[in-house]
Design goal:
Rossmann fold; about 25% strand
């Protein structure tokens, strides 16, 4: 990837981690903050929508929304291991023809992708040092809705992230986590014509939904 925006590491986002995440999803369904993000999207009562799932991991968001909200989805992820797991799950559910899979840093390929009715970023912004470029590109693709989850901007989350980054450095893994300023993120989205219509805090995470004005 020509851009080093997301710093995806084969040590952090490897096949073992992807298989573990897929097993967890199959056994227990989406993670708690993902459930809240899905509920926020569904509250807009969209049907036959197009979905752009940025950093979609094992594909939980698009697999769930293809059941009642989205007709087609595009899944962009920099991790080949997670993308393969998502493709496997789509095939298992009979959704392969409805999902386009792209392995790339989203900021590298955004200019080649069409807008979508719904754009989602679940636990993705915390993986990007350059959150401004990511959010500007994501907002520019959202025709109606943008939903995202990210670490809360509170002291104990910052402390936890510092510990995680220390562990990463001890492993000599270049991947780092980030707690970005929420006010700055909101300014970027508002400048792109989006307005926040809901926000929920859940443990480590904050989940917000934006609509096109």
């Amino acid at each position: 990837m020509p851009c080093n925006c997301c710093q995806i590491s084969g040590r952090t986002f490897n096949d073992a981690a992807a298989r573990s995440s897929l097993r967890q999803y199959r056994r227990h369904g989406p993670a708690n903050q993902t459930r809240e993000l899905l509920a926020a999207v569904r509250s807009r009562r969209l049907t036959d929508a197009t979905l752009l799932d940025i950093g979609g991991g094992v594909g939980a968001i698009h697999q769930e929304l293809l059941g009642d909200t989205a007709a087609h989805a595009t899944h962009v992820d920099a991790s080949g291991a997670y993308l393969r797991a998502a493709e496997e799950e789509a095939a298992r559910r009979g959704n392969s023809a409805r999902v386009r899979f792209i392995q790339a840093d989203f900021t590298d390929v955004a200019g080649d992708l069409p807008p979508a009715d719904i754009v989602t970023l679940d636990r993705v912004i915390c993986c990007y040092p350059d959150f401004r470029s990511l959010l500007t590109a994501a907002a520019g693709h959202a025709r109606q809705v943008l939903a995202m989850s990210y670490p809360r901007e509170v002291w104990y989350v910052r402390a936890a992230v510092r510990l995680m980054d220390l562990f990463q450095s001890l492993r000599r893994d270049p991947f780092r986590f980030f707690v970005h300023p929420v006010a700055d993120m909101e300014k970027i989205l508002e400048a792109s014509g989006l307005r926040r219509v809901s926000r929920k805090q859940l443990g480590f995470w904050e989940i917000t939904l934006y609509m096109r004005s």
